[in-house]
Design brief:
It is a single chain. By secondary structure, this protein is of the alpha/beta class. The protein has 2 domains: about 30-130 and about 265-290, Response regulator (Rossmann fold); about 130-265 and about 310-340, Response regulator (Rossmann fold). The chain has 11 helices and 12 strands. The protein has helices at about 1-25, 45-60, 75-85, 100-105, 130-150, 170-185, 205-215, 230-240, 265-280, 310-325, 335-340; strands spanning about 30-35, 60-65, 90-95, 115, 125-130, 160-165, 190-195, 220-225, 240-245, 260-265, 285-290, 295-300. The strands form 2 sheets. Strands 2-1-3-4-5-11 form a 6-stranded parallel β-sheet, with helices on both faces. Strands 7-6-8-9-10-12 form a 6-stranded mixed β-sheet, sandwiched between helices. Helix 8 links the parallel strand 8 and strand 9. The longest helix is centred in the N-terminal third of the chain and has 24 residues, at about 1-25. Mean pLDDT is about 90; it is low at about 1-25.
Length: about 350
């Protein structure tokens, strides 16, 4: 009888242990609320989705995602996902989700959130932001050097470049500041044209702006306009000038017309936020990613545009100086003049 009791106890312990392991190994469920514009923008939304897909493949998680059509949808989706109690983490994408998240994170203090590209100061929110001005400095320097030194046949004799922003807001002005600072750091004679679309999913307007810049002699146009920026590439192809992509590697879209892309590795930020929850080391607060920690860079991969090796070497030297802290790139337009003087 005693032997049977021992066997029974062992079996019970084994069952409890197996159940615990099974629960611990179960797939965790995550939520992703994309920015307006949705999937297919070949930029921010696609990158964050790729980060979730990587987490699904490598970490065994499952995730649900939603594609809001307008800003007013954000609060509804955030509340619905938080109220369900199903998600280990809800990742929200884009600065314009911040107002809604301030409210929802307070209503659901036990729900963990992450926001990409904005800061929300709540004890249950991890905010992932980037030093966009650093990457924009690099592609600005690339454009400035090409205006001065390149023999590319698509470039005219004028020293004019442009940048098309999605909206005239502090976040996008960081791109403008870095781009102008980089271009003028290497080429003080260059003129930088700036204009804004007024939204993230309006490639028609972005195309018109880029074509207008080209009529004013700009032959390299950078965009920081989300899905709207696809119009810049179309304008470059139509009018035979050059362009620069943003956020993800967009060079493949028009490889003969896109010199390079400034990359914000928000896919990595998304993956890391998920991993932190699974590893039980989620940290609220600000996670600021730049060149030094690999969160910002530029790439020429997939571009067919000819750029002299001497120019690339100069840009890469600047990158190393930023990484080492020898160059402090301005993050506001107002600070550019003092940086250059």
């Amino acid at each position: 009888m005693r032997f049977k009791k021992i066997i029974l106890s062992v079996l019970v312990l084994f069952f409890v242990f197996s159940l615990t392991v099974s629960i611990g190994a179960a797939e965790e469920k995550f939520g992703l609320i994309l920015a307006t514009g949705g999937l297919g923008d070949q930029s921010f939304n696609d990158l964050t989705y790729q980060g979730m897909e990587r987490a699904q493949e490598e970490l065994g998680i499952t995730f649900d995602y939603v594609e809001p059509k307008e800003i007013a949808d954000y609060e509804t989706y955030q509340r619905d996902l938080a109220k369900s109690g199903e998600y280990g983490l809800i990742v929200t994408v884009g600065f314009d989700q911040a107002s809604a998240l301030e409210k929802i994170a307070t209503e659901y203090p036990d729900q963990k959130f992450a926001i990409i590209d904005m800061v929300v100061d709540k004890p249950n929110v991890a905010s992932y932001v980037s030093k966009e001005h650093q990457g924009s400095f690099l592609v600005g320097a690339l454009a400035g050097l090409m205006e001065k030194q390149s023999s590319n046949p698509k470039l005219n004799d004028d020293q004019v470049i442009g940048i098309v922003g999605g909206m005239d807001i502090p976040l996008i002005r960081k791109f403008v500041a870095g781009y102008e600072a980089g271009a003028k750091y290497v080429n003080p004679e260059v003129e930088v044209l700036v204009d804004y679309v007024g939204g993230w999913s309006d490639p028609t307007t972005a195309k018109e702006i880029a074509m207008a810049m080209n009529r004013r002699d700009a032959d390299i146009v950078y965009h920081a306009a989300g899905g709207s920026g696809l119009g810049v590439f179309q304008a470059a192809e139509n009018e035979d000038f050059l362009s620069i992509g943003v956020n993800s590697n967009q060079n493949h879209i028009k490889p003969n017309y896109i010199i390079a892309s400034m990359v914000k590795k928000v896919d990595v930020a998304t993956f890391d936020s998920v991993k932190s929850v699974l590893n039980d080391n989620f940290e609220a607060g600000v996670h600021n990613l730049g060149i030094k920690d690999g969160g910002i860079d530029y790439t020429r991969e997939n571009s067919e545009v000819k750029v002299e090796a001497e120019i690339i070497n100069q840009v890469d030297d600047l990158k190393e100086k930023i990484k080492a802290g020898e160059i402090e790139v301005p993050d506001t337009i107002e600070a550019v003049d003092s940086f250059l003087n």
